[in-house]
Amino acid sequence: MKHKPPKDRKFGRGVVRCRRCGTHVGVIQKYGLMVCRRCINEIGPMLGFKVYS
């Protein structure tokens, strides 16, 4: 059986990727960051954000 290739997404969760690790889960788009929540926890202090435990 032949399969069609997946279509290119124009909007939705499948389009937004983390700049640092490439995941689609938990991406923060605010202020144009485009970084996932895990990466924000690691690099947040360098960007000027305060990380609370």
Structure explained in plain terms:
With 53 residues, this protein is an alpha+beta fold. It has a two-stranded antiparallel ribbon with strand order 1-2. The protein contains 1 helix and 2 strands. The model has no long low-confidence stretch (mean pLDDT 90). This is 30S ribosomal protein S14. Its cofactor is Zn(2+). Keywords: Ribonucleoprotein, Ribosomal protein, Zinc.
Mean pLDDT: 90
Give the SSE order as H and E letters: EEH
Q: What low-confidence regions span 5 or more consecutive residues with pLDDT below 50?
A: none
| End-to-end C-alpha gap | 52 Å
- In total, the number of strands is 2
- Shape, principal axes of CA atoms: elongated
Structural class: alpha+beta
As a percent range, the share of helical residues equals 10-25%
Q: What is the CA-atom radius of gyration, in angstroms? A: 15 Å
Determine the number of helices (DSSP H or I, runs of at least 4 residues). 1
| Strand arrangement, major sheet | 1-2
Beta content = 5-15%
Main sheet makeup: 2 strands, antiparallel
